Amino acid sequence: MTAQAALRSDHADLLRQARLEAYSTPIEDFHPGAPRLFQSDTIWPWFERLRKEAPVHYCTKAPIEPYWSVTRYHDIMHVDTNHAIFSSDVSNGGIMIRDVPPGYEWPSFIAMDEPRHGEQRKTVSPMFTPDHLDEMAVLIRQRSAKVLDSLPRNETFNWVEKVSIELTTQMLATLFDFPFEQRRRLTRWSDVSTALPKSGIVSSEDERRRELADCAETFGRMWKERQANPGRDLISMMAHSEATRHMTPDNLMGNLILLIVGGNDTTRNTMTASVLALNENPAEYQKLRDNPALIDTMVPEVIRWQTPLAHMRRTALVDTELGGQKIRKGDRVVMWYVSGNRDEEVIETPDAFIIDRKRPRIHLSFGFGIHRCVGMRLAELQLRIVWQEILKRFDRIEVVGEPKRVYSSFVRGYESLPVRIPG
Ligand code: HEM
């Protein structure tokens, strides 16, 4: 048996057990937000049963506050596009399944309602226009080529570390015009800001605060520099726009964390997922080698298959109804994009990874409505370029061991993926 086949069969065993558990647990006891289910990648049968039997489900038996789970594609779309009913605002708890801790001091525009959200979003959106992305493409290609050329042959290495983190961090450094040689500090801040207490990334809340205070101080200094000498980076854009130039330092810090996490974890984990998905589906990998033009449809397909942000959460501003359930003002409503992306009523054979799907852009991974991902075109561009450069160089990238997944029900990602490039 090849290494890949052995891995597939181990994971199939795990999934079989998970299915038994999911179908023998009373549905009122379901807690699909349990991070362990994401870390072991056994969440699928739980969501499958919810979509069929309780598509709008209230969880009261978790070690976290009660929350609604919305698991079908169209119901998710309804919540995401009705921002007057469903709030993102930090003052109502924010956008993650758990409320932001009391006294959380870094509001960002993803966790704001109108009109503040729209004003601040407008400030950074020129970074992501098609013209500006065309300009950036040249640099992205050069950097991708350099990183890929430096990879070892016939030797096992961690794809996450050497490629996914490296390329997305380089991109971030460019977006902020951050000192290039210190770019790994951005990666660390991104990891620290989303780490759960049990994830092992930081050992205490104090340590997290210390590290993020360092982030705030570093960017505070850069803000002052760019106020005097603006460039074409995100910090300069915010320092000189009417909507954001008078932001409090805490609001600045919130927006920075948003842009760091938004631009980092998500694209990074999709880059890793693409290698994993192609290895788990060798016939698809062969199709891609035979026809590199399929990169254009493969990229949205990987983004759907991976769903790098598993959920966004809203809070009901008024009593309302969804899927026959009565939602009360103040209730937490979790939109499980990861489940909507496997909704068999909207997407044909949704569990399959098919790089030439007819309509690969039918997915929820970037959200919908006023908060729809502002960096989505950049993410797709990066992924397209890296695969164009990979196919020019390597016949195959082989996954040779288990991926290690992140302990989180928010970021769906990988800590490591051991690979080998024969050569
Ligand atoms: C595959 C990669 C990516 C995925 C899957 C992703 C996913 C998402 C999702 C689900 C949302 C929230 C949508 C909603 O609430 O309706 C979002 C918002 C956002 N994303 Fe992304 N993202 C990605 C890449 C990026 C990149 C590269 C950047 C920037 C460099 C970025 C910056 C943002 C920002 C600033 C927001 C907040 C938008 C707002 O509140 O108006 N994202 N993203």
Using the alpha-carbon principal axes, give the shape.
globular
Look at the structure and give the mean pLDDT: 93
Question: Total helix count?
Answer: 15
CATH architecture descriptor = Orthogonal Bundle
Q: Output the helix-strand order.
A: HHHEEHEHHEHHHHHHHEEEEHHEEEE
Classification by helices and strands: alpha+beta
As for the CATH topology, it is Cytochrome p450
Strand order of the largest sheet: 1-2-8-5-3
Portion in helices:
40-55%
CATH class: Mainly Alpha
Q: Please describe the biggest sheet, giving its number of strands, its sense, and whether it closes into a barrel.
A: 5 strands, mixed
Domains counted in the coordinates: how many? 1
Point out poorly predicted stretches. none
Secondary structure blueprint with pairings:
Blueprint: H1 3-24, H2 35-39, H3 44-53, E1 56-59, E2 67-70, H4 73-80, E3 86-87, H5 116-124, H6 130-149, E4 157-158, H7 159-176, H8 184-194, H9 205-228, H10 234-240, H11 249-280, H12 282-290, H13 295-306, E5 311-316, E6 320-322, E7 325-327, E8 332-336, H14 337-340, H15 376-393, E9 398-399, E10 404-405, E11 414-416, E12 418-420
Parallel strand pairs: 2-8
Antiparallel strand pairs: 1-2, 3-5, 4-12, 5-8, 6-7, 9-12, 10-11
Helix pairs in contact: 1-3, 6-7, 6-15, 7-11, 8-9, 8-11, 9-10, 9-11, 11-13, 11-15, 13-15
This protein binds protoporphyrin IX containing FE.
